[in-house]
Write a structure and sequence with these properties.
This protein is α+β, with helices and mostly antiparallel strands. The protein has one domain: Alpha-Beta Plaits. Helices cover 14% and strands 27% of the residues. The chain contains two helices and four strands, in the order E-H-E-E-H-E. The strands form two sheets. The protein has a two-stranded antiparallel sheet with strand order 1-4. A hairpin with a 2-residue loop joins strand 2 and strand 3. The longest helix is centred in the first third of the chain and has 5 residues. The chain is globular.
Length: 73
């Protein structure tokens, strides 16, 4: 499962809630800027809920999964 994390830096106020509460340390503060490590994300979406400015959005990427449908008689 792959995810894409969208962080709107224009509205982010760097409150660090995402940094402090992310269970996998996907968000880190480096040089006064919040950096995103997408490979660590487990898609819990807690950052979306916690962000007071709604600056974070997480999207699940389609990896081309296929579903086989079998006809049952």
């Amino acid at each position: 499962m792959r995810v894409k994390i969208y962080l709107n830096r224009d509205i982010c106020n760097k409150c660090k809630l995402c940094v402090d509460y992310c269970p996998t340390s996907t968000f880190v503060l480096e040089s006064e800027e919040i950096k995103v490590r997408e490979e660590r994300c487990i898609y819990c979406k807690s950052c979306e809920v916690l962000c007071p400015k709604k600056a974070i959005r997480i999207a699940l990427l389609d990896e081309g999964l296929t579903i086989e449908v079998h006809r049952v008689l």
